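Record type: monomer structure entry
Structure origin: computed from sequence
Chain ID: A
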Amino acid sequence: MKFDGDVRVIREHIKTKRILVTSDIHGDLDGFRALLEKMEYTPQVDTLVIIGDLVQKGTQNLGTVRCIMELVKSQNVFVLMGNNDLFTLEGNDEEIFNHFKRHFGRTVLYESAVALGLPLPETVEEAHAVREQAERAFAAEFDFLRSLPHILETDKFLFAHAGLADESLEHQDLEYVLATPRFHETAEHRFSKLLLVGHWPSSNYRADSLNYAPLYNAECNTLSIDGGTNLKDFGQLNGVILDNETGEWTWVCVDNFPKLRAPHAQAPHGGTAITWPENAVELIERGDEFSLCRALKNGAEMDIPNGFLYEDEHGLCSVDITDARLGVREGETLSVLREFGDRILVKNDRAEAGFYFK
């Protein structure tokens, strides 16, 4: 995919007290609606900002776009483009077809074929034919994605999907704005206004814990808010609530995992974490349910559920996992991520994941 064209910047003087922000919805329409409800979003009273990646990797892509198109008709709703939105428009046929083969039912191409009553494509040429018909049938949705700006600046805040090189907003590189990796770690400029970004899940930045909460970088004054919904196995949709008067922020999240009220308390015990893309491991000893492995990134040894291990072109890898024992209060509500013989992998309302022993 080529990142052609100039960066589109909008500047707004926002008067509402609250600015509600989310990113990387990835076709999770149900989660998006649940998040708006949890944030107590009130149209025209609050401002809503969505910082890209409305579509792909989820099962409700077209519905998500239509819902947001309706929201935009209200006052104070601003939507930015993400790399997956641009990919939907500008990815070449081979890229789109390969994406479809990898993610299948969680793609715009799949939804388009089903909605139009067309056979699912089996070749690049057939994918091209589906795209052509989809562009005509869903012209309003595609035109909406095509119209999205890339950067939003307000009196107190900056917003971009992946990152900004500096504060010369009209002179940014489009690929950097939409798709730069590891921005939270690699940014060199300290922004005078708080810059909110998505794109790279916040859990990828944490080496010693598995945590999907927004992550603030004080050195650069940036806030990474992508919770990994429909991308991470245990991800969530994060919503940040900005106080437009003080500049302070809080956050909430939603996920679709079953809930458990903890029957007993548990003391915490720290550990380490493995997250993509540094998720290569070496098998030390195979077990019935867990296998002892060594993380190649730091040499840490940990027990990993066998079902979490997989092979790719580089060798043995693990999906995101931690060996930490989570601190739990009796009666606390937990998200149940996976259940094993003597323990449960859970996540608390602070987005921290770990094991809870039965």
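Annotation 1: Residues 124-137 form the longest helix (14 residues).
Annotation 2: The mean pLDDT is 96.
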